[in-house]
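stuck on this:

***
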Amino acid sequence: MNTKTAIITGGSRGLGRDMAMNLAKEGVNIILSYHSNIDKANEVVQEIEAIGQKAVAFPFDANKPESAYAFMDKAKGYLKQENGSPNFDFLVNNAGTGTFNMIADTTEVQFDEMMNIHLKSAYFLTQTALPFINDGGKIINVSSGLARFSLPGMSAYAIMKGAIEVFTRYLAKELGSRKITANTLAPGAIATDFAVGANRNEEKSKIIASITALGRVGEAEDIGGVVAFLCSDRAGWVNGQRIEVSGGMLV
């Protein structure tokens, strides 16, 4: 059986780490990116290797879209050395961070940072990866519940996530002839380090729980299994879709 490989950006912590672990448990080898915390990235690599899959981590600064090319060059070189081919199967554009500013207070620098991290880097990383994604492969772009509902202070972030959802539909359309599917995963509020761990705040957690049908804040472990499903043959007919994983937030 030919072992498949996934590239996951932002795979060293939070949602990305759980995505990597869930895919590894399904027998997928992992290439993950990290921004600056190489120790956390190496911990994930070691955890994946401990369950019998290959893993490696390379740096990627999503605020510098040109960093996508250096990251992909490292990934392709590693794959060619390991497998004799630079090709891989799954691309998960997950890297990201948040900013909290009302529209009246958002600076151009903050806006550009959100655009670079969540839209431009994902667009051009995907572009440079396309020739190396195996036919029949899968692309998953991570959006947010905030592209559906609106909470004050998150406009710049949410705008870019809305754009990612449009980008995903275009990928699905343009890559259909290669049998490559593209879908958007939109998490709701998750208790991770994202946005300085805002969703771990006790008061905010109670508010989120009160507007979520399942009555709690999401955890990273709620997300990775859905990514594993979308990368499986069982999801082969799911294409161009936005799948919200929010426990029924603001339904």
About this structure: The mean pLDDT is 95. The chain has one domain: 5-245.
